[in-house]
Each structure stands twice: as structure tokens, then as C-alpha cells.
Write the C-alpha cells for this entry.
Amino acid sequence: MISRFASNVVLSKVRAMYGRRLIKKDYLDLLNCKSVGEIASILKCKSDYFQILQELNESNVHRGQLEALIKKKIFYDTGAICRYELSTGEQFSGYIIMRMEIEQILHTLRLLSAGKSPRYIYSMPLFFNKHTKINLPALIKVENFKDFLEALSGSRYRKILAPFEPRAGENILFSKIEVMLYFQLYNTIFDVIKKYTKGEAQKELYEIFNSYVDFYNFVRIVRLKKYYNTPPEDLYPLLLPFGTLRQKQIQDMVQAESYDKAIEMMKKTNAGRKIANIEFRYVDELPLRVNYLKCNRLIRFSVYPSVVMFSYIALCEIELSNITSIIEGIRYKVPSEEIFKILVW
Amino acid sequence: MAISKIKVISIIGMMNSLDEVIKMAGESQVFHPDNALSFYSDTRGFSPVNEVNLFAEPLEMMKNIASSANFELKIVDISKFNARLESICEFVRYLENELGDLLNRRRRICEEIESSKRSLDGVNHFVGRNFNLSEIKACEYIKVRFGRLPKESYHKLNSYADNDYVLFFPCTKDNTHYFGVYFCPVEKLDVIDRIFSELYFEELDILDSEGVPEKKVVKLKNDINNCQMELVEINRKIDEFLKNQKDSWLKFYTKTFEFKTYFDIKKYVYRYNESFVLVGWLPDNQEQDFKNKLQRIKGVEYSIEDAKNVQGHSPPVCLKNRWFFKPFEFFVDMYGLPSYNEIDPTAFVAITYTILFGIMFGDLGQGAVISIIGYLLWKFKKMALGKILVPCGISSMFFGVVYGSVFGFEHVLDPFYRLVFKLEEKPIEVMNPGIANMILLSAIGIGVLLVLVAMGINVYSSFKRRQLADGIFGQNGVAGLVFYAGLIFGPISQFLGIKIFMPVYLFFMIILPLICILFEKPLGKLLEKDPDWKPESWGEYFMQSLFEVFEVILSYITNTLSFLRVGAFVLVHAGMMMVFSKLAEMSGGLGCLIFMIMGNIIVIGLEGLLVGIQVLRLEFYEMFIRFFEGQGVAFSPVSIKNYEKI
């Protein structure tokens, strides 16, 4: 109880930090840029990004370099906030680390599948090495799944991923590994919510995560149906067993005749009703858009430190995703109006 | 407390009349389009109208050029201006050729200046090193690269321990980079260059000079000076062009924007064979006018329905309030608009905010200043907050009269009280200890009243939205209202000598409501006749709900005590002004005047801001939280004014 009141400092601190976020005008300025260098230059003018980007040479900046620096800033910003929240801060910082670990594992697996593991050196976040039990430098040298498991030997992931080792001549089961890792992530976070929070705070946190998972599952169903024509029986194992969608609703969507039908079915569910109020171009945008609406509201009006803190973490991740979309869009000469439509704000 | 009535209109017509319908809907400025698919159960055969918006590209080009020229594009009056796509494109080409060329030259020069300055910074790291650039450049079998490497990349070089050619020799370093040199045999250059490039090595163009690095420094300084002179001349030409073309550019921009915005309605249109379907929302009072215009278009049919019959589609919300309440829509919008079937809290906010602000910041003179500042902010800066400050200032003036305070002079109004009310002095002496206690108790009383009203609104709103479980058993429903009232009035009655704590009172006012709150979820499900009303585990449910009820009780107490700040600010205000009055008294003469002016400025600026924030805090966190969800969608009809900033 005492720790909950002490954590109230997070409310003001997080809201003050959120006040320094990128706003619509900043995004419009970024969209007017012609190169990655100009983006870096504009971000530098924002006090929040100045420190991390101050030594960057705008005339010779690489997209990967800029993204890596922004990721680093957001990792430390969100981690710093967790220190102030005494009831769940430690557990949430564990979530941030676990999420980043999963990103590294999946990235390495993609490179391994393409036979390009040594290229991991270029994107490897060296700063993260001291926060994780994964041996990141060892991931550069992996030549097969065995080496990969060896690099993970100090961490919890070795045991989780060992059953996925492919037999000779078989491909890596990337989708199943991805689902298993995200299952672990959400299982951990739902456990934290159940164990360390209660009452309204618990309800609000469940709302954030359940709605994210609902749309994550929905997007997976739609994508796998539309682009890969995955049969229903292969689809179920690729969904996360969390969220508010009932088994019957998922079944109906999985067995829908077409992708449009699945969307219509989703719109009729409790979670899916929100779609009516959201403008989007591709269904893939929905998890972040729904999450943004919820977190943007909770960060302002929730009175629970753990909720406000997590909303901040989620909104920072959305800001990172927006910046990445802008960088990619400008790099590949997409009209700014098109990029603007996929930004979440 | 009102939300404008909205109607949903479904328009069906032949494809050849689509452009006319869209133009009419856009020009009407009252049409809010929605996704037609969600309004039809059978959407087989519906396909989106995929037409390229031909106005998007010229508009984008205008915006790009304007942004490079730091020229502000805005919507202007074009009632007497006509343009077609061809003339728009021609104007854009003219802009590109004339202004675009100047802007490109300016950009190149700026880049050159920037690059030279950066090179200068880099070369300075090698100044004083005893090496001859001409000799290094003359090496035939070895290539040398000067530059800087991020520190993180420098540490990653350890992973190349088994490659003898990946060698980097740092000369100096700063917080983020190592400045140094790498070299390798010519035949390995491609591979080594690629590795360093991916590690974000930035090469410094230092080898284009002869002799020592100092000579390069001199050359770079000269280059920078020459570029800066050229830049001044180009800037002059750009300013001249903008001065001459400003008016035509803004007219073309507005016209293109208008065409493009109306065309965008097509993304909501679905095609069915040779027909189209368009669905959207209209304000009730615009229905007839819209229908009349629509009837003039051939081959079009429509149907109109009341929004309350299609609640599942989340009808957009347009607030409708009287002039006094209207400015306070700003605060409601900040929290979130009400849903179509929810209560609009604007009037409640307007009344409570104005009164609480006045109580907490009561001063006749300072209130007048706040009103004037508010009026000026609204008049000249068009700030929404300005309109709110005007009634708040008037409320401050009223309570200033009650407290007898004018710019911190506490007895200036005494003659007024004697003349009008036949009183010896002012009725409330805030700093009197007895009165101070009464002020704090009154603040709690105001809190109790407002919390009860908020709960009452929630009961009404829940019944209106048919959320009976929340309205009856919720912590802000009937159960919560009865419990809170019982908790507050019981002890008060005892204190006044009325023996109210009888078993009947305790059961009906305290125990029964608490049981309802404790079992809110199963009772709610029972009320909705849900067969699955039992919790998975009664034990777990009971334990969890018990903690929740404990928190609910705690929140009733903390929320009520939170209103103490209303009384506290009355005392703070009087205290702060007393300090400045004493300082003024002690200094005397001109010092007295300076102290009183400075004191008033500080109190109006600092305390006015604090009071404004604290009252808003009370509104949002102690009252809204009890009855208002604010999940509504704004009614935003297609209009170039609405889309201007996008």
C-alpha cells in the first residue's frame, strides 16, 4: 500500500516526459524531409532527442544508425521510469528487456535462415549486452541452429527453443518459434499483472494487453488467410492463447470464406467494435492504433502509476514505430501523404 | 447538457452521378462520411472505388516547395477564383521551374557550408600531427582513410580479431566517436571499405589537400566565406519571388485543396455493379437542406434514419451548448467527447469550474484582471482558454467581494459593507483562525455535495444507456451513492445529536450497499439474465472483491479530502497577499507601490495558474471519473477548414 502511494511520483514524471513526445507538427516536419539526414537533423532540434543524436553527422547518416540510436534512447527512457514505480517497476523493466531479447532472437533467426548471420554485427545493440543473459557477440558467429542454441545457453530461451531444432534438411520453423516467444512474453506479463496489481489498475492493464492481443490474433488470421492461404488447422497454433476473443469467434474468423468476411466478423465482437472509430489503411495497423487510443487516454486520466507507466512504454514504442515508418518511407521515396496515413498518433 | 441530434444517410445512385454527389456533399460542409460496408449485412459484390486523386500530386508538390521556401500555405477566400486541373498543374510547373531552381541552389550551398564546417571540425582532430598528406596520397599499394568511427562500432571491431586487414588506429576521441585512420592493401579495399561503412565509419575528405592538415583548415575557411556570400544573394531573389507570387499561390493552393478534399470522399464509396453506395452522418437541422440539394441530382436515391437506431455504429458527436457553457467544451474535448448516448458534462463543468475557481481565487481586482486577460487572449490570439478565463474572473470578483479583498487590500471595501449591508466590516475575515476552520470544513462540504452529484449523474446516465448493473450495484451507482451518503450523514447527525446509527440505518445505508458493491459482477449478470453469472471460483472472487471494496472505501475518503485544496487555496491566496502587503508596508513610499504591483503580478500569474490546474484536476479525477467515459467520436464533416492542417 505504502509503495503504491510512493509510486505516485511516476504519474507526474511520466506525464512530464510524455509532454516531450513528437506531436503532429513534428511528424509533418519529418514528412517534409527528403533524406534520412534531414530527419536526424529535425529530431536533433527536439530537446528529447538532442542528447542521443547530437554527434550524428546529418550529411552522412545511415538509416540503421539512426534507428539504433532512437531505440537505445527509448530503451533507457522507459527503463528509467520503471525505477520509480515500486510495486511493478521491476517486473515491467523485465518485460522491456524480454521484448528486446525476443527481437534480437528473431532477427538472428531471420539472418540464419538466409545464411547471413555475420551481418548481425551491424545491427547488434552492444549497449544491450550488459542487460541480457544472451551472449549477443556469439550470435554473430552462429552457423547453424546448434550454435544458435549455444549462444542462448546462459538464458531462459535455450530451453524454450531447444525443441524447435530442425532435423537435417528441414527449414527453421520461424512462425512457430515467433508464437512461442511471444507466448512466453505475454504469459509473463499477464502473470505480473495478476500477481502485482489489483482492482481498477489490474482492470486497466488487462484492457491494454487483452485488446492488443485480440488485434494481434485478428491481424495474424487475416494476413495468413490473405497472403499465405494457410488452412484453418495450421492457423490455430499460430495464435496467442490470450485476449478476450472467444473460441467460437476465433473459429468463425479462421473459417471465414474471405478476408473481408473475417473483418466483418471482428467488427461484431466486443473488441472489434473499436474498428468503427478508427481510420486505417491496412489491418496490420490496428493493434498499434487501438493501443494508442487506449494508452493515450490512460496516460492522462488513469490514477494508477503502473497503468500510466505502462501506457508510456507502449506510447514510446509507437513513437519509435512512427519514426521507423517515416525513415523507411523517405528512404524508398513514398509520398509524404501516404506515409502520414500509416502513422499512429 | 446536450448533444446535437444526428441522422445517418445512405445514398445510392448511378456511377455517372457520383462526382456530382460528392461535390454536393463536400460543398454542404455538413457531411461526415462513414464506412458503407459496416451498414450492410450482405456486402457481396461491393467493391471500393479505386480512383487516383489527381489533385493529390500537385498539392503535395506545392506543399514541398512551400516547406523548402519557409512559405506558410493557408486557406484564403476563393469565391471569385476558378481553376481547373490543367491550370493548377501549369502553375505548379512554373513554381518548380522558377522557385524550385532557386531553392535547389540554396540547398546545395547550405549543404556545402555544413559539409565544410563538419570537415573543419574533423580535420582539427588531426592538426598538429606530424604527417604529410601528399606522401600518404602518393602510396601506390596501400589505401588510407581518415575519419571517425562511433564508439560502439569501435568495440565491435573485436569481432574481427581473425581478420588481419581490419585495423583502425584512433588519434583522438570525443564523447561518441574515435577519430583516426584505417588502411589496407589496394586489392582488399572493397571488402574493408564495406565493413567499415556498415560500422558507420565516416570518411573525412582530408587527402584532397597537399602538405600538412593545417593547409586544409585554411582552404575550408575560405570555402565557407565564399558560400555564405552567395547564400545572401540567393535569399534575396527568393524573397522577391515570394512577394510577387504570394496571392496567386494561396488561391491555387486553396482551390487544389478543395478539389482534393472533396475527391477524398470517394474512399468511403463502394461500387455495386453500375451503382454506388455512400453512407454518412448529418446534423438533424441540416437534413432538409441536404435532401433538397440531393433531390436535384438525377439517378440518386437515399434513406435517412435517426442515429439512436444505429447505436452500434458509434454515431459521431457534436456538442450543442448555450453561449455561457460553450467555452467549457474545450475541457470536455480534452478529456474525451461523450458517446452519442452519454450525458454531455459541459454545463456541469462550466458551473462547477467557474464557482470553484472563484472560491479559490477570490479577489475583486485580480478577478477583473483575469477577465480582461482572458478577453484579450480570446480576441487577439483566438485562444479557447481565454473565453473560459472571462467567467472565471467574474466569479473571482464576486467572491472577492465576499472576502473583501481588492488587489490584496483587505479593508478597502469596508465602507461598501457599511453602506450597503450595514455591517461594521467585511463578512468573512479569511485569516481569522475560527473562519479558517470553517472554510476548510465548507470545502469538504462542497466536495461531498459534488461527489454526490457526480454519482447521481452516473446513476441517471447508466439507466439512460441501459447499463443497469453499473447504475444499481456499481461503486458510483445507487449502491455507492447510498453507502457514501450513509457514511457522511451518519456521523454528522450523531454530532448534531440525532441518534441515527440504528440497526436499520446501518443495514440499509451501510451494509446492504456494501454487499451490492462486493457482489456487483454476479448481481449484474443475474440482472441481465446471464446463465453464466457465477464466478469461476467464489473464494478467489471474494478475496479479490474484498480488496477492491477496501480500495473503494479508501477512494471515497481520499476523493472527499481532495476537496480540502479548495479551502487551502483560499487561505494560500490571503496568506500570499498578506506577505506582500507587509513587505510593502515595511518599505513605504515608491517601494510600497513596487511591492504591491510585483506581488499582484506574481499571485495572478502563479496562483491563477495553480488554481486553474487544481480545479481541472478536481473535475477530471474526482468527478468525471465517476460518471463520464468520454469515448465518443467527434462529428467532423468534410470541409476544407477541418482538413486544412492535415
About this structure: The beta strands of chain B are 6-14, 32-34, 46-48, 142-150, 169-173, 177-185, 202-203, 270-272, 275-283, 300-306. The mean pLDDT of chain B is 88. Chain B touches chain A through 46 residues (CB under 8 Å). The domain at 131-211 of chain B is CATH 3.30.70.100 (Alpha-Beta Plaits).
